[in-house]
Fold:
Amino acid sequence: MNDVIKRSAAEIARGVSAKNVSALEVTEAALARVDEVDDRLGCYLTRLHDLARHYARRVDERVAAGETLPLAGVPVAIKDNMCLLGTRTTAASKILEHWIAPYTATAVQRVLDAGAVPIGKANLDEFAMGSSCENSALGVTRNPFDLKRVPGGSSGGSAAAVASFEAAIGLGSDTGGSIREPGAFCNVVGFKPTYGRVSRYGLIAFASSLDQIGPLTRTVEDAALAYDAMAGHDPMDSTSIDRDVEPAASGLREDLKGVRVGIVKEFITAKLGPEIDALYKRAYEELAGLGAELVEVSLPTADYGLATYYLIAPAECSSNLARFDGVRYGLRVDGADVGQMYEQTRAAGFGPEVKRRILIGTYALSSGYYDAYYVKAQKARTMFAQDFRKAFERCDLIAAPAASSPAFEFDSKSDPYSMYMMDYYTIPMSLAGLPALSVPCGYAGTPALPMGLQLAAPLFEEAKLLSAAHAYERATAYAAKAAPAV
Amino acid sequence: MASEKIDVRYVAKLARIALSEDEAERFGEQLGDLLEHVNVLSELETSAVPATAQVVESKNVERADEAGACLDRETVLSMAPQRQGAFFRVPRIIGEP
Structure:
């Protein structure tokens, strides 16, 4: 492996900007790394060697012309539910297996404009529905720290690509934990900004009121750089927030003096076993050691998160995925009439988890059940937002687990609900739209595997959140204590 | 909240997904299990709580009614499963075949 691709995105961008290394050299090193390990890891569904070289040459030209590019030459993995003009964009589904994106997602365009180089389209759970990447219809992604285990999901390909040096930034999307959990499983930083901060234009919709794009990176500084490039209003997304973005990368702190960190009393880590309980207690003490004041806060609704989420997200998914009907794009299976064509196309094109969620959502929205399920869940969602507002009167940030276990083995969660439980700690923040991230906080289990600490902040407080995570990362440096197995 | 057994075939019909015998049985069971889990929501007292569709403040977004750039017709039609000239071709939807 050429060591240039082991550098952080910030270091690569500085090196390319200073012309110490060219974007093309970095790109060739990343592509060689992909060729070396990706047959074993399966991070990418589509490798973009030619396009990557094309972009790299353009970056070198732009740098030579004197442009300042904050992500100059940084290799990026793009989750395959985001459009990139002219490339296959599948959502890891058979229904879109051969679809070529006719435009580029705003978030993708912004990182490319900032000088990033697209290396490939990364694997995910089909339509981002899952917590392990096992729901991908198009490929298996393995955890770089233990190939017998899942990388997490749904942004598992992006997380694994960053962990294994096949990219320095992975673009992911998070609906209920899909950036934070794979971040934790793969020993990288996974950051979900406030809902609406990053445009969803060109992101294949799963649950529109929850979906949010964010970066997976090896350092918090890199997450801040990627966020600074992507965040901000986009007229192409009517839910994109029209408000100034405070730059995050330039103001990262080294301590937590004066920061009140809330520990949620309902998140009882003792339930996760003595080893993980001790690990999270140590993480909270480490925050205190950096000057933070720990305060107990309450989320009385914590135990209702999964139920709320697994009504709202499937309801929105059943509506969003109605567009896949075999008429305008994607798979079509012929039938005797148009109704049969729809039914056969969707039967053949969607995998089991997607079908399950469409069915749940259709049921929850159907006549006679709408108030009892969907409206009830939307009311519960209000309570989550209220509970968090109350909690944030007493603290500036909240610390919690990012996942309830380290990465698990393939096929070990056959009951859908046990898989849904993986998102227990990340869903509440999603329901409230809060910015939240996962940062490496140690290792647990046999073999010892990465764990993540989740930090969450009030709406729009991304800069404060990243700053605190940076202080924690600097002081603890857990990610550096293990190397991927490939 | 409802506790009756789900008619999974009826729901699948609404969702326009053909199910095999095996899927109907499996999904029926799994949906029943999931609904038992989500029924815990009935414990929450929500009569005075308004529903939230989206947590971050939002307002209706309008723009001037002016033609702008759009996707190229040929690019879009080139991905149609079946086309006829400038049209998407679909099975007959009106009248007897």
User: Anything to note?
Assistant: Chain A has 15 helices and eleven strands.
